[in-house]
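A quick aside before the break. I want you to see a complete sequence-to-structure record at least once, exactly as it would be stored in a machine-readable document. Don't worry about memorizing anything.
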Amino acid sequence: MNTDALASFVKIAELRSLSAAAKLYGLPKSTLSLRLKQLEDDLKVALFERSGRVLLLTEAGQTLLGHARQILQSCDTARAAVTELSDDVTGTLRIGATGEFGTAYYTQMLMAFRKLYPKVEIELTFFSPHVLYAPESLDMLDAVISWDEGIEGGETLSTAKFALFASKSYVERAGMPRKPADLAEHQGIVYRTSAGLQHWRLQKGTAQESILPRSNLIANEYWTIKYFAVAGEGIAYLPHFFTTIECERGHLIPLLDTWESAEKRVSIRISRPHAPSRKMTAFMDVCGRYFSPGFVFTGPRYYVETIFDASQQEKGTEK
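That is the input. The structure line, written in tokens, reads:
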């Protein structure tokens, strides 16, 4: 039985769609379809039946799924055991993560790791929280990194605080808020979580505020939120690390800078904490250094650049 075909079958079963699996894992749809056909021909059974646009497992498919996961896990364990015998840290590091701040956070950390351990293959996959925390997802990953909202467990990698930011052009047009009550007169750019619109939770000493601003710009992706803030469309609630470059370059300015959120935890959960592989031990060591005070990242960094004066947008005047 071909392990590539089994792996493709598991991917399709998890997402219940050939197209979705192809998009998420970066594989041609034709390749997944061919591997699935080969597996069904080999077993002489149908593994899926179609219900509208969704692929549902047949009874045979449901039976195979559990075995397929065990087989693939055994293959990974065997591969890891053999590579442990070499002097170099090798193998495939499979990291699952929720999608917040992916290029500004997870990828920079993985780039720091890659510079030290170039022989380790890296697979970083972003999932929605309900998929990421499912037991079957955890079984297929070496570790899960997430921004926790009241979720216990895991080891803390770092913490971050959110604050309010806007462009100079927006402040010149709408005025500078001096206190949280002033935000009622301003336009917000609001992030949508899986549970609903994100409130701006701010605190200063013992004082606390929870604000849901008026908004006609809502998105479930923080880069989009930041883009519209740089473009002068309103105030955004973002973590400090995510706006460092934009603030340095004058594209954004902090507002109510003595008001910010409580610390939000970034954690990592290792799938096999009692018997970590060499690559996982190396990764945790790099994470510790990456988030330690004084660490300077020297790789590429992403940010939103302003290439025109937002106040001259209607005229199309370039800087």
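Two observations worth writing down. The chain has three domains: 1-73, 84-159+265-309, 162-262. The longest strand covers residues 91-97. We'll return to this after the break.
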